[in-house]
Amino acid sequence: MLQVPLKCPITFKRITLPARGHDCKHIQCFDLESYLQLNCERGAWRCPVCNKPAQLEGLEVDQYMWGILNTLNQSEVEEVTIDSSANWKAAKCLVGVKTEDDSDSCGAKRMNKAMSPGSMTLPTMNNWDMSQAMSPYIPPDMNS
């Protein structure tokens, strides 16, 4: 069983879009938007979890973790437990948050089945307001 935090190691807030570098071997993710903002300013492009190079071109959105975060959308769960069959359950709630059943941690009575990527609707570039996006690459103006 693995304990996996749902908080970004950069902002310590709940991850919105979970990502990691192509060379990373860990399950823990960081928030993609926070990582891009940080590196547009600082430019180190290193994974905040394992410190391996995590260049823009090699960043990957973790669909499995994205599915877990989507399922736990409005909950106060900070961490999940994942078993060897990729089933998961809520493991740790925010301190001071009461659940309806206090005998049970975060209301996690059973393991949840892993979702297949085909059953999820993933975010696309169309969902992002590109006028607000900050990109380290500005395409040349071909009209001038």
Automatic annotation (TrEMBL):
Q: What are the UniProt keywords, alphabetically? A: Metal-binding, Zinc, Zinc-finger
Q: Note the superkingdom of the native organism.
A: Eukaryota
Entry keyword annotation includes DNA-binding: no
A Pfam family this chain is assigned to: zf-MIZ
Instruction: Supply the InterPro entries for this chain.
Output: Znf_MIZ, Znf_RING/FYVE/PHD
All residue ranges annotated as the SP-RING-type domain in the record: 1-74
Q: Which PANTHER family match?
A: TONALLI, ISOFORM E, ZINC FINGER MIZ DOMAIN-CONTAINING PROTEIN
Task: Report the protein name in the record.
Answer: SP-RING-type domain-containing protein
Q: What taxonomic classification does the UniProt entry list for its organism? A: Eukaryota, Metazoa, Ecdysozoa, Arthropoda, Hexapoda
